[in-house]
Amino acid sequence: MKKIKILGVANLPQKDREEYNTILSTMDSIYSTAKVHPEPNISWSLEPELTDIMATSRSYKRLLFAWEAWHNASGVPLRAQYPRFVELSNAASQADGFNDTGADWRSWYETPTFEQDIEALYRTIEPLYQNLHAFVRRKLYNQYGSKYINLKGPIPAHLLGNMWAQTWNNIYDMMIPFPDKPNLDVTDEMVKQGYNATHMFRVAEDFFTSLNLEEMPDEFWEGSMLVKPEGREVVCHASAWDFYNRRDFRIKQCTTVTMEQLFTVHHEMGHIQYYLQYKDQPVGFRRGANPGFHEAIGDVLSLSVSTPKHLHSIKLLESGTSDTETDTNYLLKMALEKIAFLPFGYLIDQWRWGVFKGNTPPERYNAEWWYLR
C-alpha cells in the first residue's frame, strides 16, 4: 500500500510536471549531443571517438584535451539546468512525505541506517582501494614522470582510461604485474574472429541458456538497439528495458567490439533474464528488490563470464590454465574495474544527497564534487 501511495513526479501540478519533463529531456539531449572539435571540420562524440581516445591514448596532452573539452561541452550547459531540476524533484518527493529526493531514493533500500551502512561498508574496503590507488599511481609515474604525477598526491582523472575515471581497466596494459603471461584482454582476438554486435549478444544468450535460463524473445531481437544508429543522436549508456507486456524486453547499447563491451552485454542481458523471471507477477512486483539488487545480478553474471576459464571455453583465450602469476594478473584486472568503481559510485550519491538536502548550493556544485573526489 505504501508504494501505491507514492506518486513521485505525478504529484506536481501540470505546469511544473511539464517543466520537469522538459528539463530532463533537455539534459538528456545535452549529454547525448555534446561534441568536441579538435579541428574546425572535425567533431568527436562521446561514443565512439572520445571513449576510444580515453581508453587507448597514452598521450597526456591528448587525453587532457579530450577530457576537458567534453566536460566543458556537456557539463557547463547541464549545470544551468540542474538547480531547477533539483527544486522540482524535491517538491515531488516532499509531496510524498520525504524531506527531499535523496531521502526518497534512500527509502527504496528499506533501512533507516542506509547512509551509515554504506559508509561502514566503504571503510572496510578503503585500505584495499588505497593500496590499489598507490600501485596505479606508481605505474603512471613510470609512464608519465614527475612532471605529471605526484607520488604523494591524487591521480589526474584523465589518465585512468575512462571519461569519469570510474573504472581503470582500460589502462591494464600499463599495470600488468606479469606481462609475459597470456594477455587477458581478448579484444584483439574478438576482432580477429570477426565478432560484431549481434554475435556478442548471441554469445551472451548462449551463456544464459547454458545455465538453463531463457532465450531472448523474438521482440528482443526486433526492438533492441544494439549499435549506434546512423543519422541521429542517442544516449549510448547501455541499459535494459521492460515494456511491461510480458513479451517486449530490449537493450539499448552502442556496442563496439571490445572485451569490456562483451561483459557489458552479459550484464545488461542479466537484467533481461531477471525481467523474464518475474514477468508473470503482478505489476507491483515486477521490479528488483531494490535498485542495487538488479545491478548485483548483472555484475555477478558478468564476473562469471570474465574468468580465464570461461574465455578459454568460448575460444577467446588460448589457455585456461591458471597459476599464481596468471591469477594475480586477473585479480588486478578485476580490481581496476570493480574496486576502483566503489568509491566513485559512493561519491556520486554523496554529492547528489548533499545537493538535494540543500547543503551544496549551485555555486558549490563543482567545488563539492572535487572535494569528495
Automatic annotation (TrEMBL):
<feature type="glycosylation site" description="N-linked (GlcNAc...) asparagine">
    <location>
        <position position="196"/>
    </location>
</feature>
<feature type="binding site">
    <location>
        <position position="271"/>
    </location>
    <ligand>
        <name>Zn(2+) 2</name>
    </ligand>
</feature>
<feature type="binding site">
    <location>
        <position position="271"/>
    </location>
    <ligand>
        <name>Zn(2+) 1</name>
    </ligand>
</feature>
<comment type="similarity">
    <text>Belongs to the peptidase M2 family.</text>
</comment>
<keyword id="KW-1015">Disulfide bond</keyword>
<feature type="disulfide bond">
    <location>
        <begin position="236"/>
        <end position="254"/>
    </location>
</feature>
<dbReference type="InterPro" id="IPR001548">
    <property type="entry name" value="Peptidase_M2"/>
</dbReference>
<dbReference type="GO" id="GO:0004180">
    <property type="term" value="F:carboxypeptidase activity"/>
</dbReference>
<keyword id="KW-0325">Glycoprotein</keyword>
<dbReference type="GO" id="GO:0006508">
    <property type="term" value="P:proteolysis"/>
</dbReference>
<dbReference type="GO" id="GO:0008237">
    <property type="term" value="F:metallopeptidase activity"/>
</dbReference>
<dbReference type="GO" id="GO:0046872">
    <property type="term" value="F:metal ion binding"/>
</dbReference>
<dbReference type="Pfam" id="PF01401">
    <property type="entry name" value="Peptidase_M2"/>
</dbReference>
<keyword id="KW-0479">Metal-binding</keyword>
<feature type="binding site">
    <location>
        <position position="295"/>
    </location>
    <ligand>
        <name>Zn(2+) 1</name>
    </ligand>
</feature>
<feature type="binding site">
    <location>
        <position position="267"/>
    </location>
    <ligand>
        <name>Zn(2+) 1</name>
    </ligand>
</feature>
<protein>
    <recommendedName>
        <fullName>Angiotensin-converting enzyme</fullName>
        <ecNumber>3.4.-.-</ecNumber>
    </recommendedName>
</protein>
<feature type="binding site">
    <location>
        <position position="295"/>
    </location>
    <ligand>
        <name>Zn(2+) 2</name>
    </ligand>
</feature>
<keyword id="KW-0862">Zinc</keyword>
<feature type="binding site">
    <location>
        <position position="109"/>
    </location>
    <ligand>
        <name>chloride</name>
    </ligand>
</feature>
<feature type="active site" description="Proton acceptor 2">
    <location>
        <position position="268"/>
    </location>
</feature>
<keyword id="KW-0482">Metalloprotease</keyword>
<keyword id="KW-0732">Signal</keyword>
<keyword id="KW-0121">Carboxypeptidase</keyword>
<dbReference type="GO" id="GO:0005886">
    <property type="term" value="C:plasma membrane"/>
</dbReference>
<keyword id="KW-0645">Protease</keyword>
<feature type="binding site">
    <location>
        <position position="267"/>
    </location>
    <ligand>
        <name>Zn(2+) 2</name>
    </ligand>
</feature>
<keyword id="KW-0378">Hydrolase</keyword>
<dbReference type="GO" id="GO:0008241">
    <property type="term" value="F:peptidyl-dipeptidase activity"/>
</dbReference>
